[in-house]
Protein backbone atom coordinates (compact mmCIF):
# COMPACT_ATOMS: atom_id res chain seq x y z
CA UNK A 1 0.00 0.00 0.00
CA UNK A 2 1.27 3.47 -0.87
CA UNK A 3 2.03 5.73 2.08
CA UNK A 4 1.97 9.53 1.99
CA UNK A 5 4.14 11.43 4.47
CA UNK A 6 3.51 15.21 4.40
CA UNK A 7 6.65 17.20 5.15
CA UNK A 8 6.25 19.89 7.77
CA UNK A 9 9.18 21.71 6.16
CA UNK A 10 6.46 23.20 3.92
CA UNK A 11 4.06 23.89 6.80
CA UNK A 12 3.60 27.07 8.83
CA UNK A 13 6.13 26.69 11.67
CA UNK A 14 4.13 29.10 13.84
CA UNK A 15 1.16 26.70 13.71
CA UNK A 16 2.78 23.25 13.68
CA UNK A 17 0.17 21.56 15.87
CA UNK A 18 -2.63 22.85 13.63
CA UNK A 19 -0.69 21.89 10.50
CA UNK A 20 -0.21 18.37 11.86
CA UNK A 21 -3.94 18.06 12.51
CA UNK A 22 -4.68 19.29 8.97
CA UNK A 23 -3.19 16.06 7.56
CA UNK A 24 -4.40 13.52 10.11
CA UNK A 25 -5.32 11.13 7.30
CA UNK A 26 -1.64 10.87 6.37
CA UNK A 27 0.34 7.73 7.10
CA UNK A 28 3.25 9.54 8.76
CA UNK A 29 4.30 13.13 9.41
CA UNK A 30 7.72 13.76 7.88
CA UNK A 31 9.98 15.91 10.06
CA UNK A 32 13.12 17.34 8.42
CA UNK A 33 15.90 17.93 10.94
CA UNK A 34 18.75 20.04 9.53
CA UNK A 35 21.84 21.26 11.39
CA UNK A 36 23.34 23.84 8.99
CA UNK A 37 26.44 21.61 8.72
CA UNK A 38 25.49 18.47 6.80
CA UNK A 39 23.12 20.64 4.75
CA UNK A 40 23.11 24.45 4.40
CA UNK A 41 19.92 25.03 6.34
CA UNK A 42 18.79 25.00 9.98
CA UNK A 43 15.32 23.79 10.96
CA UNK A 44 14.34 22.14 14.25
CA UNK A 45 15.46 19.61 16.81
CA UNK A 46 14.50 17.31 19.66
CA UNK A 47 12.24 19.73 21.64
CA UNK A 48 10.01 20.37 18.61
CA UNK A 49 9.77 16.63 17.91
CA UNK A 50 8.74 16.05 21.53
CA UNK A 51 6.05 18.71 21.23
CA UNK A 52 4.78 17.39 17.90
CA UNK A 53 4.58 13.85 19.26
CA UNK A 54 2.25 15.13 21.98
CA UNK A 55 0.19 17.20 19.55
CA UNK A 56 -0.68 14.55 16.95
CA UNK A 57 -1.61 10.88 16.75
CA UNK A 58 0.07 10.64 13.32
CA UNK A 59 3.41 8.86 13.79
CA UNK A 60 6.53 10.93 13.19
CA UNK A 61 9.02 10.06 10.44
CA UNK A 62 12.20 12.00 11.33
CA UNK A 63 14.73 12.57 8.55
CA UNK A 64 18.05 13.60 10.10
CA UNK A 65 20.10 15.72 7.71
CA UNK A 66 22.78 16.20 10.34
CA UNK A 67 26.38 15.40 11.11
CA UNK A 68 27.14 12.71 13.71
CA UNK A 69 23.77 10.91 13.58
CA UNK A 70 25.42 8.06 15.54
CA UNK A 71 25.32 10.38 18.55
CA UNK A 72 22.02 12.17 17.99
CA UNK A 73 19.61 9.74 16.27
CA UNK A 74 18.69 7.74 19.40
CA UNK A 75 17.49 10.94 21.07
CA UNK A 76 14.84 11.35 18.37
CA UNK A 77 13.45 7.91 19.20
CA UNK A 78 13.28 8.93 22.84
CA UNK A 79 11.54 12.16 21.77
CA UNK A 80 8.73 10.16 20.18
CA UNK A 81 9.71 9.45 16.57
CA UNK A 82 8.31 6.22 15.18
CA UNK A 83 10.86 6.14 12.34
CA UNK A 84 14.32 7.69 12.25
CA UNK A 85 16.31 8.16 9.04
CA UNK A 86 20.04 8.87 9.10
CA UNK A 87 22.21 9.61 6.07
CA UNK A 88 24.67 7.00 4.80
CA UNK A 89 27.08 9.84 4.06
CA UNK A 90 27.08 11.01 7.69
CA UNK A 91 26.93 7.80 9.75
CA UNK A 92 30.20 6.38 11.06
CA UNK A 93 28.73 2.96 11.92
CA UNK A 94 25.42 2.56 10.07
CA UNK A 95 24.75 -1.05 11.10
CA UNK A 96 25.30 -0.32 14.77
CA UNK A 97 23.15 2.81 14.51
CA UNK A 98 20.30 1.02 12.73
CA UNK A 99 20.34 -1.69 15.41
CA UNK A 100 20.29 0.91 18.19
CA UNK A 101 17.32 2.73 16.64
CA UNK A 102 15.45 -0.57 16.34
CA UNK A 103 16.36 -1.61 19.88
CA UNK A 104 14.86 1.62 21.19
CA UNK A 105 11.58 0.78 19.45
CA UNK A 106 11.57 2.80 16.22
CA UNK A 107 11.90 1.87 12.56
CA UNK A 108 15.44 2.34 11.25
CA UNK A 109 15.91 4.04 7.91
CA UNK A 110 18.90 5.17 5.87
CA UNK A 111 18.94 7.96 3.27
CA UNK A 112 21.08 8.39 0.16
CA UNK A 113 21.82 11.75 -1.47
CA UNK A 114 21.36 11.87 -5.26
CA UNK A 115 25.03 11.20 -6.04
CA UNK A 116 25.34 8.28 -3.60
CA UNK A 117 24.87 4.87 -5.28
CA UNK A 118 22.83 2.12 -3.67
CA UNK A 119 25.08 -0.79 -4.64
CA UNK A 120 27.75 -0.38 -1.89
CA UNK A 121 24.99 -0.68 0.71
CA UNK A 122 23.35 -3.86 -0.61
CA UNK A 123 24.58 -6.03 2.27
CA UNK A 124 23.28 -3.50 4.81
CA UNK A 125 19.68 -3.54 3.56
CA UNK A 126 18.50 -6.36 5.89
CA UNK A 127 19.39 -4.13 8.86
CA UNK A 128 16.90 -1.48 7.75
CA UNK A 129 13.13 -1.01 7.79
CA UNK A 130 13.19 1.67 5.08
CA UNK A 131 15.57 3.17 2.54
CA UNK A 132 15.15 6.80 1.48
CA UNK A 133 16.27 7.90 -1.96
CA UNK A 134 16.57 11.68 -2.19
CA UNK A 135 15.11 12.96 -5.44
CA UNK A 136 16.52 16.45 -4.82
CA UNK A 137 19.66 17.65 -3.06
CA UNK A 138 18.76 17.72 0.65
CA UNK A 139 18.55 21.04 2.44
CA UNK A 140 15.58 22.97 1.08
CA UNK A 141 11.94 22.34 0.22
CA UNK A 142 10.24 23.23 -3.04
CA UNK A 143 12.96 21.93 -5.36
CA UNK A 144 12.28 20.36 -8.76
CA UNK A 145 12.19 16.56 -8.98
CA UNK A 146 15.33 14.92 -10.40
CA UNK A 147 14.21 12.44 -13.09
CA UNK A 148 17.69 10.92 -13.18
CA UNK A 149 16.91 9.27 -9.83
CA UNK A 150 14.28 6.95 -11.37
CA UNK A 151 16.81 4.29 -12.48
CA UNK A 152 18.29 4.31 -8.96
CA UNK A 153 14.82 3.71 -7.51
CA UNK A 154 14.39 0.76 -9.90
CA UNK A 155 17.78 -0.72 -8.99
CA UNK A 156 16.97 -0.40 -5.31
CA UNK A 157 13.62 -2.14 -5.76
CA UNK A 158 15.42 -4.94 -7.61
CA UNK A 159 17.86 -5.38 -4.71
CA UNK A 160 14.98 -5.48 -2.22
CA UNK A 161 13.33 -8.22 -4.29
CA UNK A 162 16.62 -10.09 -4.74
CA UNK A 163 16.99 -10.43 -0.97
CA UNK A 164 13.29 -11.02 -0.29
CA UNK A 165 13.06 -8.07 2.08
CA UNK A 166 9.98 -6.32 3.48
CA UNK A 167 11.75 -3.00 3.13
CA UNK A 168 9.90 0.23 2.48
CA UNK A 169 11.32 2.41 -0.30
CA UNK A 170 10.79 6.11 0.30
CA UNK A 171 11.34 9.05 -2.05
CA UNK A 172 11.70 12.65 -0.92
CA UNK A 173 12.00 15.75 -3.08
CA UNK A 174 9.73 17.26 -5.71
CA UNK A 175 7.01 14.62 -5.19
CA UNK A 176 3.71 15.94 -6.56
CA UNK A 177 0.74 14.95 -8.71
CA UNK A 178 3.00 15.27 -11.77
CA UNK A 179 5.81 13.03 -10.45
CA UNK A 180 4.34 10.53 -7.98
CA UNK A 181 3.23 8.04 -10.64
CA UNK A 182 6.74 7.83 -12.10
CA UNK A 183 8.14 7.18 -8.62
CA UNK A 184 5.55 4.48 -7.91
CA UNK A 185 6.13 2.78 -11.27
CA UNK A 186 9.88 2.70 -10.55
CA UNK A 187 9.37 1.01 -7.18
CA UNK A 188 8.78 3.57 -4.44
CA UNK A 189 5.99 2.90 -1.94
CA UNK A 190 6.46 5.72 0.60
CA UNK A 191 6.22 9.30 -0.65
CA UNK A 192 7.28 12.47 1.13
CA UNK A 193 5.30 15.45 -0.14
CA UNK A 194 5.74 18.97 1.14
CA UNK A 195 4.58 21.75 -1.15
CA UNK A 196 2.15 19.40 -2.93
CA UNK A 197 0.29 18.93 0.36
CA UNK A 198 0.72 22.11 2.36
CA UNK A 199 0.51 24.31 -0.71
CA UNK A 200 -2.93 22.87 -1.54
CA UNK A 201 -6.21 24.51 -0.53
CA UNK A 202 -7.17 21.27 1.25
CA UNK A 203 -4.07 19.42 2.54
CA UNK A 204 -6.06 16.37 3.66
CA UNK A 205 -7.61 15.99 0.21
CA UNK A 206 -4.16 16.39 -1.37
CA UNK A 207 -2.94 13.45 0.73
CA UNK A 208 -5.88 11.29 -0.37
CA UNK A 209 -5.40 12.24 -4.03
CA UNK A 210 -1.66 11.53 -4.04
CA UNK A 211 -2.20 8.18 -2.30
CA UNK A 212 -4.86 7.21 -4.84
CA UNK A 213 -2.58 8.08 -7.76
CA UNK A 214 0.30 6.08 -6.30
CA UNK A 215 -1.87 3.05 -5.53
CA UNK A 216 -3.37 2.96 -9.03
CA UNK A 217 0.10 3.04 -10.56
CA UNK A 218 1.49 0.47 -8.14
CA UNK A 219 -1.31 -1.97 -8.97
CA UNK A 220 -0.06 -2.14 -12.55
CA UNK A 221 3.67 -1.85 -11.86
CA UNK A 222 5.78 -4.90 -12.82
CA UNK A 223 7.67 -4.82 -9.52
CA UNK A 224 4.46 -4.99 -7.49
CA UNK A 225 2.95 -7.76 -9.64
CA UNK A 226 6.10 -9.84 -9.13
CA UNK A 227 6.17 -9.19 -5.36
Topology of helices and strands:
Layout: E1 3-6, H1 16-21, E2 29-34, H2 46-55, E3 60-65, H3 69-78, E4 83-87, H4 94-103, E5 107-112, E6 130-134, H5 150-162, E7 168-172, H6 180-186, E8 190-193, H7 195-198, H8 203-220, H9 222-226
Parallel strand pairs: 1-8, 2-3, 3-4, 4-5, 5-6, 6-7, 7-8
Order of helices and strands: EHEHEHEHEEHEHEHHH
How many beta strands in the DSSP annotation? 8
Radius of gyration: 16 Å
Number of helices: 9
As laid out across the biggest beta sheet, the strand order is 1-8-7-6-5-4-3-2
How far is the first residue's CA from the last residue's CA? 12 Å
Largest sheet: 8 strands, parallel
Average residue pLDDT: 96
Q: What class, by secondary structure content?
A: alpha/beta
Silhouette: globular
Helicity, as a percent range:
25-40%
Low-confidence stretches: none
Proportion of residues in extended strands: 15-25%
How would you describe this protein?
With 227 residues, the chain is of the alpha/beta class. 37% of the residues lie in helices and 18% in strands. An eight-stranded parallel beta sheet has the order 1-8-7-6-5-4-3-2. Helix 6 (180-186) links the parallel strand 7 (168-172) and strand 8. Helix 3 runs parallel beside helix 4 and helix 6 (180-186) runs parallel beside helix 8. It is globular, with a radius of gyration of 16 Å. The mean pLDDT is 96.
List keywords for this structure.
alpha/beta; eight-stranded parallel beta sheet; 9 helices; 18% strand; globular; Ribul_P_3_epim-like; carbohydrate metabolism
Amino acid sequence: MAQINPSILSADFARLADEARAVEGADWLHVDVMDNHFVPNLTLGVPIVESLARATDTPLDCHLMIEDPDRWAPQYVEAGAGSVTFHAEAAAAPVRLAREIRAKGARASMALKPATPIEPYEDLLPELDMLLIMTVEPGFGGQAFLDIMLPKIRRTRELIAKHGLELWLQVDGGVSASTIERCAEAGADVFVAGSAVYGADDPAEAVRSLRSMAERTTADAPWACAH
